[in-house]
User: Fold these one by one.
Assistant:
Number 1:
Amino acid sequence: MNFSNPKYKKMFDRLLGACHQNFPSIDEKLLAKGFEFAIEAHKNDRRASGDEYITHPFEVALIVAQEIPLDDVTVVSALLHDTIEDTEISVELLQKEFGKEVAEIVDGVTKISGIFKGHEITQAENFRKLLLSMVKDVRVILVKFADRLHNMRTLEHLHPEKQRRIAQETLEIYAPFSHRFGLAQFKWELEDLAFKYLNKVAYDEISNKISAKRNERESFIKKFADPISKKLDEYKLKYEISGRAKHLYSIYRKMVRRNKPFEEIYDLFAIRIILDTSDKNDCYTTLGIVNQMYPPVADRFKDYVSIPKTNNYQSIHTTVVGPDGKLVEVQIRTRNMHEIAERGFAAHWRYKESKTTSDKDLENWVNWVRDIFESATKDEEKKDLIENFKLNLYQDEIYVFTPKGDLKRLPINSTPVDFAFEIHSKVGHHCIGAKVNGKIVPLDTRLHSGDQLEIIISKNQHPNKNWLKFAVTHKAKNAIRKYINKEEEEIVNAGKELWEKKLKKLKLSFNMEDIIRLAVSLKFEGTKHFFKSIAQGKLDLDDVLATTKEKEKKEKVSVLEFDSFASSARNTAGGILVDGKIDGILYSYAKCCNPIPGDPVIGFVTIGEGVKVHRKSCNNLSMIQEKNESKFITVQWPENESSLFVAGLKIVGKDSPGILNDISHAIVSYQNTNIKSVNISTADSSFDGSVTLYVHNIGHLERIIERLKKIKGVISVERFESF
Ligand code: MN
C-alpha cells in the first residue's frame, strides 16, 4: 500500500500485521481504503492531546485487531467509527464506499454516543439494556468497547470534570458490560483506569504499596514455585506457573467490602499451575507434588476436576502453608480447563445479579461472542456465527427517558399514552399531548429507544376509544377500557332510569325479552345501545311505546301456545310416575311452573286434587315446603334411555337471510335431534320463533341452547314457558 506520508505507511503496516496475526484471511484493499478515508475525513481535526485525530481511530482499530479479533469488517468500522459524528461524512456515503455492514456498524456506534452525551447515568443496568436495544449487530458494541478503552487510556488530556464523568460511566456501564461479554482483560483495564480518575488518593496508595512490595512478592513466588518446578520437570510435565494477577480496583473493592487493610488482602498469595496436557490425572500428580513440598490446610481443598461446577468450571483448589508460614492458594488445571474457566467466568459473575429471561438471552449471546473469539477459526464458520449476530435481542423493547432522566422500559411501538400510564394512572387519564425530544407530537406517535418524553396533561382530558387503536401496554389498554366501560355503564344506567320512569307514567310493563325484541326491531345491536340512545335523547319513547298494545296481544298467544305444547309433551312422555308407579294416583301439573318432561320435578299431596307436580325450581315450592314437609312425594318422568321428551325453545333475534336455516342446522346436526314444529314470526327487522324438538334429557336441551346462542343474529334463547 502506498500512503503519501511514511508515517501513515508505518501505522498501516502495524495494523495490517496485527490483522494477519489474528485473522485467517483479510481484505487488505478494504482496510487500506478505510484507513485512507479516515485520514482524509479527520485531516483538520486534532485530539485534546494535540495529536492528529487519526491516531484515535487507528488505535481503536488496533485494539479491535489485537484484543477482540473478530473480523476485518469490525476493524474497518473501527477506523471509521468517528466519521459520521465528527465530520461531514454521511451514512449513505459510507454505505456506498464500504457496504451496508460497515455503514450500519458506524451508524450504531454514533447513535450510542448520542445517547450518552445527553444523559446522566442513573440506572446502570437499564443503560446496558438501552444499549442492547439500540444495537442490531454485536460488532457495534465491540467497536464501542475499543473506543472507550482508548479514550480511557488517553483521558489525562481532558478537563478534570469530564474525566470524572467519563470514568464514572466506564465503571458503571462499560466495565461490567465488557465482563459480561467475556472480555475480562478489558474489564480489568477499564476498572483500573476509571479508579485512577475517580479516587486518585486510594489509587496512588495501592499502586505505591504494590510496587514497594513487587520485589518481595516476586521473590516469594519464586521461592515457593522453584521446588515445584523442579519436581514437575522430573515428571516431564509441561506447565506454566504464575502468581495470579491482582488488579488495583479489585484490591480496593475487597478492602472496602471486607473492611481490611491492604496487607491482608494483598498478602494472600495465589498461585496458578496450568498444565499443557490432555490427561486430567496429571492434575492429581501435580497436587501430590505440591503437597509433598508444603503441608495442606485442612478444609481448604476442593476438587472441581472430578466434580465440575454446574457451569463446567474445572480446577483443583488447595491452600498450603508456604515458606515463612505464609498461606498460599493454589489452583491446578489443564490448559483446556483454564480456557473453560475463563469463559465461564463471565457467566459466574452474572449469577450475582437478578435473573430475568432477558438475562438468559444475554448469556447465550455472550457465549456466541466467546465462541467467535476462541473457537471459530474457519472463515465459513465465522460467517455463520456473524449471521446469528443479527440480533433480535431486546429488539422487542425500547428504553425512553423521563424528563428527570430516569429510564422506562416499554414494549416496541409504544406511544406517549403507554408512557403516561407507565408513569402514573393519573397522568395516563389526563394526557393530552407529549413532547418527544422537545418537540410536541400527537399521542399516537411511536416512540424510539433513547427518546426523552414529557407528557402534557389537562384536567378536562379523558381516555377515549380511539386510544385503544394505538396503545400497546396492558397497563394502558386496561385502564382505557375500564374507563370507557365505566363511562358507558353510567350512560346505560341513566337510559334505564328514563325508560322506567316513562313506563311507570304510561302504566306499562315490559320484561327483558320484550325490551330485547323492541331494541332489535329498532335496529339496535342490543339493549345497551338501546338504553344509551335513550340517555342521549336520540330516541322518542312516546313514539316507540305507541306500538306496545300489539305486543301485549302477542303475549297471550304465547301462553296459549305453551299450554298446548306442554300437554302434548307430557302425553308423549307418557305422563308421570308417582312413587315409582305409573297409575292409580290422581295427579295434575301445577300452573305456576308448568313442568314439562325433562324438568326435575317433585309432587305435593293436596286435598281433593291429588298430587300436584311442580318443578323443583318452582318459586312457590319453598313457601309450601316450610309448613308441609311431610306432604311431599317423589315423582318422576318415566325413564327410558330411548325415550324422548318434547322441549320448547323461544328464540329472539335479528331477521336476516339464512337465519332460520342456521337455527335448524344447529338443532338437527346435534345428535340427529328431531324438530317437531317451528313457528316464526317477524316484525320489522326482528324475528321471534318458537321451536319444539325431541330431546333425551335436560343436558341434551342445554347443549342445543348453547349452540343456538352462538348463531350470529340470535339474541336470546330461552326455555319455552309461560310468562
Ligand atoms: Mn472515538
Note: The chain has 28 helices and 20 strands.
Number 2:
Amino acid sequence: MIKLNLKYTKVAHKMQKYQSQIDNIHQVIIDRTGEGNEMLDWYDWANKITDTEINAINFKIKNLKTINKIDTLLVIGIGGSYLGAKAGIDFIKGKMRADDKIIFAGINLSGSYYKQIEEKLKNRNWAICVISKSGKTIEPAIAFRYFSDLLEKKVGKAKMKDLITVITDQKKGLLNDFVDKYNYQKFVIPDGIGGRFSAITAVGLFPMAFAGVDIIKILNGVRKANNDLKSNKLKDNIAYQYAVTRYILHKKNKLTSEIFITYSEDFLMLQEWLKQLFAESEGKKGKGLLPNSLTYTRDLHSLGQFIQEGKKTFFETNIWQESEESEIKILKNDLDLDNLNYLEGKTIDYVNKQALKGVVKAHVENGNIANIIISFKRNDELTLGYLWYFFFIAVTCSGYLLKINPFNQPGVEIYKNNLNKNLRIKK
Ligand code: PA5
C-alpha cells in the first residue's frame, strides 16, 4: 500500500543492530506494558468501532443534508480535535474543493478569522459539530459560545437540537453538560485514544463523512495497516524501519530536525497533522526531533536556498504520490515565445515528478542531506487510513526508542492552564 525507500539515507545498513531493541518495544506495545499504555486503544480501534456507530454517523449526516438542507458544516475544535479531519478532507477531496463546505473554527483567537467565517456563513444553511476531548479547551469553547449564539439567532432555539453535534469524552468535560441540557446528538472519543491519534474515531470520521469521504474505506485502510505492520522483524515492518532510521539519523548523525516534504498543496494539512503527532509524542524531557514541513516546489523558491546550502541540522522525509492525479497537460503554442513547446503533451504531474527526482539528487548528492521517501499510489481513503496507522506505529516506536511516554503532552497542558489563569485575572 505504501513504500518506504531508505536508499538515500545512507544509514539503512545500520538498522539491523536495533533488532533486539525493536523486539522489546514490539512486545511492550502488544502486551501494553510500556509507559502510557492506557492510551493505546487506537491500536485495534478499527476492529472495535461498531457498525452501529458508523451507521449513526452516516445517518446523522444524511439527516443534516436531506431533512435539514444543511450545505455547510462548521467544525469547532483544535489540535487533535481538528487536524486529522482537515488533513483527511484535503488529502482526499483536494484542498481547493475542500475549503468550501466545511469550515473550521476554534483553531485560533483571531477576531478577523471569526468575522470572515461569519461573512461566509451568511448565505449558507449551516450546522455545528463541536469537538473537544477535554471539553475545556478555551479556543473551541469560545468559538462554540459565539457560533452557537449566531446559529440560534438564525434558526431559533427549537431547531438547535437538530443542528448541533457534540464529539467529546464519555463523561468528563463541560460539553457533556450541553448534551444533558439540550439533548444534542453526541459521539464519544474513547478514553484510551489521545487527541493526535483520534482521526480514526468520530473526531475525524464525522467531518470527513460530511465532506463525502467514505469512512468505511478509511477504517479498511487502518485495518490493512494493522494487519501488515504486525511483525516484530525489522525487515518485514516498514513502520519500525522508518522509526529506527530517523532514530539513527537523530542519535548517530546528530541531526535535530525532520522536515516532512510534499509536492502538493493537498497534503499540506497532512504535514500539519504529522507535526502534531511527532512533536507532542517525542518532544519531552529535552528529547526528540523537531518536526517541520515544506511544500515543494513552492518552498524551493524561498527556503530552498537554506535547505541546499545552510547549516545541516535536519533530514527530509518525502511523502510522495506516485500516480498522476490529473490529466492536465502542457499544450502546444504556435508562437512558443516561452520556449516550452518541448514539453508539449507532458502532464503537470510528470513535471512534478521530474522536480522530485532533481531535488532529491541535489539535496542528497550536493547537499549531503539524508532523504527518506514514503510513497503511495493514490490519494484515496484506503491509503489515508493506512498512512495514518503507519505513522501511529512509527511514532510509538520512536517514543519508546527515546525512552519517553509517547502518549502524553504535559507541555501543552502548561500553556492551556496559563491562558485560563490569565483570562480569569481581573485587570
Ligand atoms: O494532543 C492534544 O492533547 C492536544 O493537542 C489536543 O488535541 C488539543 O489541545 C485539543 O484538546 P481537546 O480535544 O481536549 O479540546
Note: The chain has two domains: 2-33+221-401, 41-213.
